[in-house]
Amino acid sequence: xxxxxxxxxxxxxxxxxxxxxxxxTALILRTAALGHRRRAxxxxxxxxxxxxxxxxxxxxxxxALLTASHLAYETLRWVxxxxxxxxxxxxxxxxxxxxxxxxxxxxxxxxATLTGGETKARTGVDDTLLSGWWQGSVTNLLNPKMGAFYxxxxxQFIPAGASHLASGVLLAGVHILLAIxxxxxxxxxxxxxxxxxxRPSVRRYLDxxxxxxxxxxGIRLALGQ
Length: 225
Description:
The chain has 225 residues and is mainly α.
């Protein structure tokens, strides 16, 4: 059985990992800041679904096979990198394409809450829980570094004789709980600034920053850094 000390140490490690600004933080902040509340929570749930999958696969030894297989790891790395570069590039292209098409009516929305249909019509984003979940889960599952992290860290906290699957799910649950608490803080912070961040000019700059961050992560992944 895993001791409380081991759980506390694991929580400290993944807590620091969660607090480190990265791709997940950028996705959640950008989505929530633009007023896509349902989609933002979908992104959070999708990311954590991916974390749970990585935890289960690692506890069963599947991700160890992934990291041991050069071809499998490289394939996942390149697919993940291509997806991130595509997603970041899509955001950047949209900001330049729509920069001259913003209307005064769109600029006047301010911090008003939009329905899902209005949000999609005005921003081109499908503000649904499912669409956010899909984006979050795909982004997480196509990141082989998550698998490598769990392969390196998880076995150290599973004692001999304990159920690997139960222990892996427990530890992944600790990671998920901390990540959700942090996501709540990010979404609350974004809600405070949402009125300003929904202005078309500010939204374009936010999308450019987010798109650059996401594409940069993809490039780094492609370069193996």
